[in-house]
Amino acid sequence: MPKYYKQTRLLIAVDCIIFGFDGTELKLLLVQRGLEPEKGKWSLIGSFIRESEDFENGAARILNELTGLEGVYLEQLHAFGRPDRDPLERTISVAYFALIDINQYERQINTDFHAEWFPIQKTPKLIFDHDQMVVMAKEKLRYKAAFHPILFELLPEKFTLPQLQSLYEGIFDTAFDKRNFSRKIQSTKLLVKQKDKDKESSKKGAYYYKLDKRRYAAKFHAFLNFIPNPDNLK
């Protein structure tokens, strides 16, 4: 079969940006790159697409081969195609991202490529343009968290206000005043206070709460009060 005349052949890769929440901190999953250039340095989970597979199947395969994770819903983020992004060959990367509950997937993680969770504020320098990918993925994640109920899916059925605050602070990269956050969150009347406390985090303990799912579905907009400049989210 003839090929397109005088057209440059390009490599296509997929990079997966996996955010996770462990109940305390927002984290990013990284692996150590297994080939040159930049071998051994920290990288997003990425590799080349096979000729016989589409991007979605390729992303799922690559994520599984490099970390052991499977069954993760991946959303396509952006195509990165700067000509010099890979110093070895012209490579276009299609980035995918996901936000997961680390505790649900903890047993799947393998160590073949030294897959490791890093707190989002303490991630090492990444190869190529992977830092740029993470920045864009965080912006997309903030948008989704502002207008969709994805954050509560990461929390256990019963959670404390410090847990909820930590999750919001990690997503929106900002610090909330503890008393102000507690007052505002309870003013929404979307959380139901429980009788028992979490005694492990502090001597005094923090009361558990549950989300009133019925009221939450009807009044989700109440949580926009916690988001810095929601009109500026993209």
Structural class: alpha+beta
Show unreliable segments: none
How much of the sequence lies in strands comes to 25-35%
* CATH topology tier name of the largest domain: Nucleoside Triphosphate Pyrophosphohydrolase
Give the tally of β-strands: 10
Number of domains: 2
Q: What is the rounded Rg?
A: 20 Å
The separation of the N and C termini measures 44 Å
CATH architecture type of the largest domain: Alpha-Beta Complex
CATH class of the largest domain: Alpha Beta
Descriptive notes:
The protein has 234 residues and is α+β, with helices and mostly antiparallel strands. It folds into 2 domains: 11-147, Alpha-Beta Complex (Nucleoside Triphosphate Pyrophosphohydrolase); 152-232, Winged helix-like DNA-binding domain superfamily/Winged helix DNA-binding domain (Arc Repressor Mutant, subunit A), CATH 1.10.10. The protein contains 6 helices and 10 strands. Strands 1, 2, 3, 4, 5, 6 and 7 form a 7-stranded mixed β-sheet that branches. It has a 3-stranded antiparallel β-sheet with strand order 8-10-9. The protein starts with 10 loop residues before the first strand and ends in a 16-residue tail after the last helix. 27% of the residues are buried.
